[in-house]
Design a protein that fits this description.
The chain is built from four helices and six strands, in the order ββββββαααα. With 167 residues, it is mainly alpha-helical. Helix 2 packs antiparallel against helix 3 and helix 3 packs antiparallel against helix 4. The N and C termini lie far apart (97 Å).
Length: 167
Amino acid sequence: MALINCPECGHDVSDRAKICPHCGVEIAGQVITCPRCGQVNFKDATHCSFCHTQFVEENKIFFDDKNDSDTLKDIIGLKSFKQFVLKEMRMPTTTIVTGVVFMIVIFVGLYFKQVVREQNEFVDYQEALSSKQSSVMQNYLDMYEHAPKAHRENVKRHLEMLDGGEE
């Protein structure tokens, strides 16, 4: 509930009162709130009595005197304030959606890169264990410093057995 000044007599009256208790003018359903400053005004007002924001009557779209004529033409050409907001929000929304899609593509790419890296490590691990050449095993240990600890230990143990058997 807000107190407004009655346009007929100027006395304070509730914006929810059916009529002004002082002069009898109809109040209920006849007021709007300024979208810029929040001041309560009568629906037939052409501008806010507080901040002087002008109202476009047919669509209830507002603009202030600082808007340039191109923006004003765009606003008046729209059918509703919702369309105005959607038009103004379209570019940032598109940018956000594009950014999210880009991030998803990056993360999926990184995931598959990691999967391929793990598959290559496992294939090279099996090859190193089945090999009888110490150079293949040493190559695995040099290439995969961050391989699972169990893999590296098995290859080292296999390499030590191979080197110990040659002596």
